[in-house]
Write a structure and sequence with these properties.
With about 170 residues, the chain is mainly beta. Helices cover about 5% and strands about 45% of the residues. It contains 1 helix and 12 strands, in the order ββββββββββββα. The chain has a 6-stranded mixed sheet, with no helix packed on it. A 6-stranded antiparallel sheet has the order 2-12-11-8-4-5. Strand 6 and strand 7 form a beta hairpin. About 40% of the residues are buried.
Length: about 170
């Protein structure tokens, strides 16, 4: 199992063969929300149906399915079924009131279709201050295939700020 450092990018094929996988996000910040943005090549949310969150748990073709269970979010992904306009999936955590500095541990694990963990991004609250939203990691299309990148970038304005950053608006 490989642990990616913030800013590190690797070919998804280093960990997973094929385009079906599971991503699991676990955290210890009560009432935090995990979301996924499906973005175009310009990092913009052109289709609100590709913003998966607690009130919209799947993409239109079920290519991304989100299951929420307290401090764990499980995402079943079929990257090969995503439409050509979706070039990037960005995994985020946000909280309406609490800063991410209150996190003990935040972990994003990439698993193969059999549920075996192959890669992880691990972040802690000491990496943040007043941010109420964090881009944890992203999967993105590249000329050589899909890649996994550890982002670890925070936003003080929370999910609303992040949604605006990606060109979206609250549903």
């Amino acid at each position: 199992m490989t642990q990616l450092q913030p800013g590190e990018k690797r070919s998804l094929s280093d960990f997973i063969s094929g385009t079906r996988l599971r991503v699991q996000v676990t955290h210890d910040l009560p009432q935090a929300d995990v979301s996924v943005f499906g973005l175009d090549g310009e990092r913009q949310l052109r289709d609100d149906r590709y913003f998966m969150f607690y009130n919209q748990l799947s993409s239109p073709g079920q290519e991304v399915r989100l299951q929420l269970d307290g401090s764990r979010a499980t995402l079943d992904l079929d990257l090969g079924a995503l439409p050509p306009g979706i070039e990037r999936l960005v995994f985020v955590i946000s909280h309406d009131d609490a800063p991410m500095s209150r996190l003990g541990q935040l972990r994003l694990a990439v698993q193969d279709p059999q549920g075996v963990e192959r890669a992880a991004v691990v972040l802690g609250g000491t990496q943040f201050t007043a941010e109420r939203a964090v881009m944890i990691a992203e999967l993105y299309r590249h000329t050589s295939g899909w890649r996994l990148g550890s982002v670890a970038q925070g936003f003080q304005g929370g999910l609303d700020s992040l949604l605006g950053y990606f060109g979206g608006r609250w549903p």
